[in-house]
């Protein structure tokens, strides 16, 4: 089949995933080398299962070959007498160590990657497997089997592996090729403005790709969008077409309501990022649900407020109570009396935000008005601008100190939603007492959501550079964010760490961050995956200041946690972590560089980043490696980075497999969750 130029041009821009990792130490003894090889081969066989959605045959074939290597090294380990191995065998074993590490990376990548992405890259990944087979064949040709005194059954297995590797050919799964052709056909249909047949779409996505639920389809879209956002992607328009197809399949096959639970689980994101509704014709206008009576579900003509603070259309709630009901239909709370309070302010004037006048009415009316403004400010810059122009910000500011938890929560959330519009940020910061009131809610808000949304408001406001220092200088602000990061819910910690990240970008805020204990809290947050990325980013920014570098360097957990994040984090988290360690070395001097260089497994982590990290992460990793090598501690850790770097230039190549020129590099890091 004819493959798009997208594949080869994209691949040529990327480093090989399966290359440049797991280099053995220079000073390993023969017995230690054999033990290390047995351990690594065992890891590949036991921890990496051939469960990838695609490349199953290639994965199984490679694992079966590694099992034979495992039997070889287990025999040598158990029968080792102390005699030195032949130098040619030692050299060959070190190359096998590299090959095993590359094999593990490739197998993990296939097991954990996006299904659609694996399908798009099937030729390139198949080429990687073929390359490994050819290297196995080459290594076994030069391995001095006769000098190793192997048992007959072990020698027979190695000779069988040698014959298999010589005969191996590139394998492209015809099932995957057929699926890929159908993906191309769907994209072609969409490009022509036609909708793909729903039954065929289901066959490909549900039966072929095994994407059987909305969350799995969303994960596919998220993964592909992450690739679209990388700097080095070529032919980006093609990949955008694939993303569009995945989105279309998600909503066509699983519906718009499939993510209801997921959306409700992140209320602030819904309020901040919900897109405006599509334009509708005059005859199709649908009133917002906030303006509809919860009883009749129709637009309220004469809205009134009952004693619980809920709003209903007068005729509907009167009929409800006349039928003998004594509880609030919406909240279930008892109705202590039947008095109804009319909405204050009547119909809004031209240019006034709905419910704006009600903010000067009774307490119950203010609470309802703040809630309606909060909901109206969710969607669209036009709404946010109109609400601010109508004078709502000073009135909402007064409600921040309300003893009513609902009033306080609705007012701070309304201000959060208004702050999304850039020009509203200046009005909020210019309003006397508004910043201090927001901080007061953060410190002692009456509900958890109020405190969390106050933190989110500071994050939104701190996007303006001049406001970062104003926020950090506000008494109690940084301390309260630090406390929320330490002890808040997962959502609260996320709000707090993003606000601290923004504040960290201002150089004048460094001393305040140290004094408040924020640096210590950020180091602790490195252990929590939900906030580790932002915490590492904030630390990297702070450590550009010598005082912050010294303070963070005194934290015992800082170096090991940053190093650990380099191994397990997202691509951006790994980038931040290596940048933080680099700044720590640059500002902390020789003693700190020595401490960083002694971090367990740092050499292997740097090697992996050099070949699989983002462009910036690779640059930072190279700089950090040079600093650590100058410290003369690299040999203790067995990094052998010069060997890694020199080898990297020779392992990237293209081969002619009888199907045209096919590049054999696999892009992106392997930290993608199992889908």
UniProtKB/TrEMBL annotation:
<dbReference type="InterPro" id="IPR058678">
    <property type="entry name" value="ARM_PUB"/>
</dbReference>
<dbReference type="InterPro" id="IPR003613">
    <property type="entry name" value="Ubox_domain"/>
</dbReference>
<dbReference type="InterPro" id="IPR045210">
    <property type="entry name" value="RING-Ubox_PUB"/>
</dbReference>
<dbReference type="InterPro" id="IPR057623">
    <property type="entry name" value="PUB12-19-like_N"/>
</dbReference>
<dbReference type="InterPro" id="IPR016024">
    <property type="entry name" value="ARM-type_fold"/>
</dbReference>
<keyword id="KW-0833">Ubl conjugation pathway</keyword>
<dbReference type="InterPro" id="IPR000225">
    <property type="entry name" value="Armadillo"/>
</dbReference>
<keyword id="KW-0677">Repeat</keyword>
<dbReference type="InterPro" id="IPR013083">
    <property type="entry name" value="Znf_RING/FYVE/PHD"/>
</dbReference>
<comment type="pathway">
    <text>Protein modification; protein ubiquitination.</text>
</comment>
<dbReference type="GO" id="GO:0016567">
    <property type="term" value="P:protein ubiquitination"/>
</dbReference>
<dbReference type="Pfam" id="PF25598">
    <property type="entry name" value="ARM_PUB"/>
</dbReference>
<dbReference type="Pfam" id="PF04564">
    <property type="entry name" value="U-box"/>
</dbReference>
<keyword id="KW-0808">Transferase</keyword>
<dbReference type="InterPro" id="IPR036537">
    <property type="entry name" value="Adaptor_Cbl_N_dom_sf"/>
</dbReference>
<feature type="repeat" description="ARM">
    <location>
        <begin position="391"/>
        <end position="433"/>
    </location>
</feature>
<dbReference type="Pfam" id="PF25368">
    <property type="entry name" value="PUB10_N"/>
</dbReference>
<dbReference type="GO" id="GO:0007166">
    <property type="term" value="P:cell surface receptor signaling pathway"/>
</dbReference>
<feature type="domain" description="U-box">
    <location>
        <begin position="286"/>
        <end position="335"/>
    </location>
</feature>
<dbReference type="GO" id="GO:0061630">
    <property type="term" value="F:ubiquitin protein ligase activity"/>
</dbReference>
<protein>
    <recommendedName>
        <fullName>RING-type E3 ubiquitin transferase</fullName>
        <ecNumber>2.3.2.27</ecNumber>
    </recommendedName>
</protein>
<dbReference type="InterPro" id="IPR011989">
    <property type="entry name" value="ARM-like"/>
</dbReference>
